[in-house]
C-alpha cells in the first residue's frame, strides 16, 4: 500500500477536496488490487462496524500505542471484509435487485390510471 503524506508538501497549498480526491484514487487502486470492484458495496460493508469503533473509541490518541490499537481494530474489520466481499457482494446485488424491482412496481402502480 502506498504511503500518503501531505505534511511534506509545503510548496503548494492543497485543499481538503484535493486531498480527499487523492485518497479516493489510492483507495480505489488498492481495493482493485484485492479484487474489490464495487467500492460502494465494500463501503456499505465496512462502515457500520468502523463507525461503531469510532463512536465507542475512548482513547485520546495521544500516544502511538493507542493509535496503533485503534488502527489495528479498524484493519481487522477491513481485512475480514475483504475476505468476505464475494459473498457479501452477491447478497448485495440480490437485495438491490429486489429493492429496484419493488420500486419500479410501485412507481408503475402510482403513475398508472387503469380503471377496472
Question: How does this model look, in words?
Answer:
This protein has 116 residues and is mainly alpha-helical. It has helices at residues 16-33, 39-56, 64-111. α2 (39-56) crosses α3. The mean pLDDT is 87.
Q: Rg, please?
A: 21 Å
Structural class call reads: mainly alpha
Largest sheet properties: none
SSE pattern, N- to C-terminal: HHH
Helical percent range? over 70%
Mean pLDDT: 87
Low-confidence stretches: none
Percent of residues in beta strands? under 5%
How many helices does DSSP assign?
3
What is the fold's blueprint, element by element?
Blueprint: H1 16-33, H2 39-56, H3 64-111
Question: What characteristics describe this protein?
Answer:
mainly alpha; elongated; 116 residues; single chain; 0% strand
Short description:
This protein has 116 residues and is mostly helical. It has helices spanning 16-33, 39-56, 64-111.
Amino acid at each position: 500500500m502506498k504511503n500518503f503524506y501531505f505534511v511534506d508538501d509545503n510548496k503548494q497549498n492543497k485543499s481538503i477536496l484535493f486531498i480527499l480526491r487523492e485518497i479516493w484514487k489510492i483507495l480505489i487502486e488498492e481495493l482493485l488490487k484485492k479484487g474489490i470492484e464495487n467500492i460502494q458495496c465494500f463501503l456499505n460493508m465496512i462502515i457500520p462496524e468502523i463507525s461503531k469503533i469510532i463512536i465507542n473509541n475512548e482513547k485520546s490518541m495521544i500516544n502511538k500505542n493507542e493509535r496503533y490499537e485503534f488502527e489495528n481494530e479498524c484493519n481487522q474489520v477491513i481485512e475480514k471484509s475483504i475476505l468476505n466481499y464475494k459473498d457479501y457482494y452477491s447478497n448485495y446485488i440480490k437485495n438491490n435487485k429486489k429493492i429496484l424491482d419493488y420500486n419500479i412496481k410501485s412507481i408503475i402502480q402510482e403513475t398508472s390510471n387503469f380503471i377496472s
